[in-house]
Design a protein that fits this description.
The chain is α+β, with helices and mostly antiparallel strands. The chain has one domain: Electron Transport, Fmn-binding Protein, Chain A (Pnp Oxidase, Chain A). Helix content is about 25%, strand content about 30%. The strands form two sheets. Strands 2-1-5-6-9 form a five-stranded antiparallel β-sheet. A four-stranded antiparallel β-sheet has the order 3-4-8-7. A hairpin with a 5-residue loop joins β1 and β2. The longest helix has 15 residues. The two termini are about 15 Å apart.
């Protein structure tokens, strides 16, 4: 489902958001702090702050359903992945380097666009004890880059 270009994109300086919905259908969303590709893209791990995403994590625990959006601010290139088997796992400290690299890549992406670095660093400040990992198998992938091909299944939208 994910080619090498898409896998590289997911791990670049993109903005990452993760959404789900409660069993009653209420949508919930939070910002992620990085992405790790597992088994060549068969699974995706994203990192999130439980202190800012308690409702989202509860929804994932109840439904297993996620929509994960990756968007590069400088180009608006956007990919959306969906999964139906998401699970919340404890954060592995070995993944801290992935999180730190993502934050550095995101800062390098948005500071030239005019966002003050101090503000971005504040938004992305973290302590490893306040991180969790959400792992899922992508079941659908779409281009969501604004334009006539937005919404097309990945692979068909090139």
């Amino acid at each position: 489902m994910l080619d090498n270009d898409s896998i590289a994109f997911l791990q670049s300086g993109v903005s990452i958001s993760l959404a789900s919905c409660s069993p009653g259908g209420m949508p919930v969303m939070s910002r992620c702090l990085g992405c790790k590709i597992i088994d060549g893209g068969r699974q995706i791990a994203v990192f999130i702050k439980p202190s800012q995403a308690a409702e989202l994590l509860d929804a994932i625990r109840c439904t297993g359903r996620v929509a994960n959006v990756f968007s590069l601010p400088s180009t608006n290139r956007t990919l959306q992945l969906k999964g139906i088997d998401a699970r919340v796992t404890p954060f592995d400290p070995a993944d801290l380097a992935v999180v730190e690299a993502h934050v550095a890549d995101f800062i390098a992406e948005v500071v030239p666009l005019g966002l003050p670095e101090a503000v971005v660093r504040t938004v992305f400040s973290l302590v490893p004890e306040d991180l969790a990992t959400v792992i899922y198998t992508p079941s659908a992938a779409f281009s969501q880059t604004p334009g006539p091909k937005a919404g097309e299944a990945l692979g068909a939208a090139r």
